[in-house]
Amino acid sequence: MERSIDAPPGGYGIINGMEREIFKALIDIVSLLNRPDRDLKMITKAGVNLEAAAFRVLVGIAHLQSTSVGELAAMMGKSYSSVSRQIDKLENAGLVHTYPSRSDSRIRVSELTKHGEEIIAIINRTRERMMQEALAEWTPEDKESLLMNLRRLYQTMKRLD
Description:
This protein is mainly alpha-helical. The chain has a domain at about 50-160: Arc Repressor Mutant, subunit A (Orthogonal Bundle).
């Protein structure tokens, strides 16, 4: 263990090296998953006709189910206007349906259409194949442990919000 540079003498800034390494590993994973070239690879492998930006928004809507533009923009770390433009494109392509929120008509809610669900099913099957390939040398126990610990980490970090 070492003292943080910012900590006052004898102060509060003890950093455990393991937590720092966990954080670095998380940044590595998030950075890897957020690379646009990975999205293009997924789009190509899935054989779907989507722009990378629209792909991310479609996947985000599928993940959140019915969601507002604001919620989706916050989850993605993007501006409201850029997410809204992509939703418009997805709606014009018949992949997403939007409607005013029941609680506040100023809020636009987006959800997948039947066609959007079909495209997401293709993407999910492709993602599953890619993950199986990536984890081919892992034992079932290693995979189960990873899943359990990722879920646990998510719940732990969510409580900090």
